[in-house]
Specification:
1-deoxy-D-xylulose 5-phosphate binds at residues 126, 152-153, 179, 202, 215, 220-221, 224. By secondary structure, the protein is of the alpha/beta class. It has helices at residues 13-24, 40-50, 60-72, 83-91, 108-116, 126-142, 152-160, 196-199, 209-217, 219-232, 270-278, 292-295, 309-320, 324-340, 347-359, 368-387; strands at residues 3-8, 29-35, 54-57, 78-81, 97-100, 120-123, 146-149, 171-178, 239-243, 249-255, 260-264. A 7-stranded parallel beta sheet has the order 4-3-2-1-5-6-7, sandwiched between helices. A 4-stranded mixed beta sheet has the order 9-8-10-11, covered by helices on one side. The structure holds nicotinamide-adenine-dinucleotide and magnesium ion. Nicotinamide-adenine-dinucleotide binds at residues 9-15, 36-37, 39, 58, 101-103, 106, 124-127, 151, 205, 207-208, 210-211, 269.
Length: 393
């Protein structure tokens, strides 16, 4: 049966890759809704190509502009806007599958709505799970939602786990691989002066700017450890991080008998996206077959927590539990934004997150409201700390 998709965040990097795979299989997938924040022109192009029933944008002005262009081109796509409109398309009967590809905390409420509506969810928006892991997983379980990880590491783990998941007695550990980002070998003392463009120049992956900065600080891997903890129900001390600069092994699962299963492939998000879209089938993703003679060498090293303090901060937040990881995530989003806008230096990202975690009390993540309050409080605290920091030269 054809799958009908809502694609939250269709104009981003994951959105592009998803639509590329969808376009290869028109008999398998059709599009119910596409959503963007401010990039109305790109959304118009996507609507004209994929003819969704609904298109959602962030505000009324963008909606009016998108609607005008769509009508002029003869499109019948209905245009809506705002956070509630995202929730509506995520839970609508018009779709069975929701691709959660909004960046950051803005993805939480619509992704949770998809969980509550029992959808099949292709999860790229790791921040949603980092903020509200237990709430999100409970909602998915109680409402029969199926969660398919799109994050390449988690998709790899999913592929390497037995069907019972980590409940299978033989699973000992998950090993998340990490490229180490653009600054893996750079002299730590020189990191103070790196620019946003340098931080966004990832050696292996092409991604949105926020996750690219997170890869450079390795906060991304920290968020992924938290994501893995909730997705696969394993404590943090059974989730290892291993630096693997070639990004060919996307992650591994180790077993009691000494076996280690790994998933390999060229670093292209269309592979995990195609896997999750078609699961349990396998379809062409447009990604070239891996040629190991070309790759030739696979290297591995331990992560350097002194060079990458954000990784250690995320591990600490996971160990603390409660709203600590929502606090960490919000402080990081504000700090990354300030770095991208050249308001703070690169090393001040970790400094800001650390200061916010120290300044705010932790408490149990008892409800979505508590999580959203913790998120808001962390944003306020981060902005205050950033105000006191020097503007980089
Ligand atoms: P991106 O910045 O390229 O795209 C983000 C999308 O979200 C865009 O469509 C944008 O319009 C939308 N958006 C942004 N702010 C919004 C808001 N406030 N409200 C509604 N929509 C909003 O980001 P990306 O690189 O595609 O990443 C998306 C998510 O996938 C992130 O959570 C990221 O961590 C995760 N992810 C990305 C990759 C990758 O290769 N890009 C890999 C693994 C996981
Ligand atoms: Mg990843």
């Amino acid at each position: 049966m054809q799958k009908r998709l809502t694609l939250l965040g269709s104009t981003g990097s994951i959105g592009d890759s998803t639509l590329d795979v969808v376009a290869r299989h028109p008999q398998r997938f059709s599009v119910y809704a596409l959503t963007a924040h401010r990039n109305g022109d790109k959304l118009v192009e996507q609507c004209l190509r994929f003819a969704p029933e609904v298109a959602v944008v962030g505000d009324a002005d963008t909606a009016a502009a998108v609607e005008r262009k769509l009508r002029a081109a003869g499109s019948k796509t209905v245009v809506t806007y705002g956070p509630q409109a995202l929730v509506e398309v995520a839970k609508s009967d018009g779709c069975d599958t929701v691709v959660a590809a909004i960046v950051g905390a803005a993805g939480l409420v619509p992704t949770l709505a998809a969980g509550q509506a029992g959808k099949r969810i292709l999860l790229a928006n790791k921040e949603a799970l980092v903020m509200s892991g237990d709430i999100f997983m409970d909602a998915a379980r109680e409402n029969g939602a199926v969660l398919l990880p799109v994050d390449s590491e988690h998709n790899a783990v999913f592929q390497c786990l037995p069907s019972e998941g980590t409940k299978h007695g033989g699973v000992t550990k998950i090993i998340l691989t990490a490229s180490g980002g653009p600054f893996r070998t750079r002299e730590p003392a020189t990191l103070v002066g790196v620019t946003p463009d340098e931080a966004c120049k990832h050696p292996n992956w092409s991604m949105g700017r926020k996750i690219s900065v997170d890869s450079a600080t390795m906060m991304n891997k920290g968020l992924e450890v938290i994501e893995a903890h909730y997705l696969f129900d394993l404590p943090g001390d059974r989730i290892d991080v291993l630096i693997h600069p070639q990004s060919v092994i996307h992650s591994m699962v180790s077993y009691a008998d000494g076996s280690v299963l790994a998933q390999l492939g060229n670093p292209d998000m269309r592979t995990p996206i195609a896997h999750a879209l078609a699961f349990p089938d396998r379809v062409d993703s447009g990604v070239a077959q891996l040629d190991l003679t070309q790759v030739a060498t696979l290297n591995f090293e331990k992560p350097d927590y002194a060079r990458f303090p954000c990784l250690a901060l995320a591990m600490k937040a996971l160990a603390e539990g409660g709203v600590a990881s929502a606090t960490l995530n919000a402080a990081n989003e504000v700090a990354v934004d300030a770095f991208l806008n050249r308001r703070i230096g690169f090393m001040a990202i970790a400094q800001t997150v650390d200061a916010v975690l120290n300044a705010l009390d932790n408490r149990s993540a008892a409800s979505l409201d508590v999580v959203l309050e913790a998120d808001a409080a962390a944003r306020r605290a981060a902005l205050k700390i950033i105000d006191s920091l020097p503007v980089p030269a």
